[in-house]
Amino acid sequence: MEISVPFGQSMVTAEIPDEFPVDVLDAAEISAAVDPIGEVQRALAEPVGGFTWRDWAGTTSVAIAINDKTRPVPHGDLLPPLLDRLRDLGVPDDAITFHIAVGGHPPMEPAEFSAVLSPDILRRFRVVSHDAERDVALVFLGETSNGTPVWANRGYVEADFRIVVGTIAPHQFVGFSGGVKSAAIGLAGLATINANHTLMAHPDSQIGTYSTNPARQDVEEIGALFGVNLALNAILDQQREVVHAVAGDPVAVMTVGAPIAGRLGQVSVPQDYALVIASPGGHPKDINVYQAQKAVASAARIVRPGGTIVLTAACPEGAGSEHYEEWVSDKHSREEVVDAFMDEGFRIGPHKAYQLARDTEQARLIVVSDMPDELSHLLLFDPAADLQSAVDGALKGLSPGESVAVLPHASATMPFVDVE
Asked: Which fold has domain 2-28+270-417?
């Protein structure tokens, strides 16, 4: 059987002999909105959670948090209807600032802004990139009940009307993206991000959970201290087209949208697999290891102990984090990574090394990428020249009849073994 999975801006293929049954696991096929902009307009016209537009007529300053280049958000569908709404409220262009929410990543350079915003928006509005390590641009807002110190982007929280724009999708330890997260993490200081992400080790910080997820509920408290007034979120299909849009009070948006995103992403399987081939879903989800790691987390849910995960991720930007590379450079095994991380405590960057090591403690990890082998080895990967050679190598240890799973869009898929 020939398999084909996304890789960067294209696809890669491999042939799997017939003696190995293959299950291609993808979210259920759903129909995208025929008119995505109309769907967004509908959501804005029918806000949830008691939000009302009239409360913001004549607002003199608006801050809009948007995701960075590593996340596939359809800004072309989401932003024009939102900006039309603000115009109808009498808000002038010079009262609006877009804040690119990079979280703990390096700030985006102005030359890169066109990767996330249209020329029209860049011409009309002020656009700035967050810097989580620029202390002078942060303001302290207090602590969450978990003790997370909340340092926020000063320009964002000091605006009169604070908006977040993004998508609701499964997230490996915060449960779901969406709601306040684009601001609460994306525009937070490094101390805030580090403290919140420490909760990733909590057993209840699981993909596809919301109200019971301590990491997610900490995010909600951060967002409340930020004072986020409006969330505009889309739920996408595997082709990254808008299926559904929700707008309004951020908590209400998550209450409505998370169950929809959960149903779309779940895939039940009757067994675990000797070999799981996983792609994050192509660009930008495989722009670097930092993002592509999420595919390994999904694959780890259904690989058998002692099995193999093959990750296909172009990673043109390499690891995507200097902190990650530096920290892992003197480690020689995944066991050493886990032990060191637990001893030293949470840090942004090294946490990705920990997640990869934790998820593959009982599985072999082969990586097909465009990274130099030297970098792959430094990151403790077993590199392969192409998908076919990776598959051939993994199949050598299997007996005929053992099953293979393929996850073409692993970062947005929640596979689980149904033991009933």
From this structure: 2-enoyl-CoA Hydratase; Chain A, domain 1 (3.90.226)
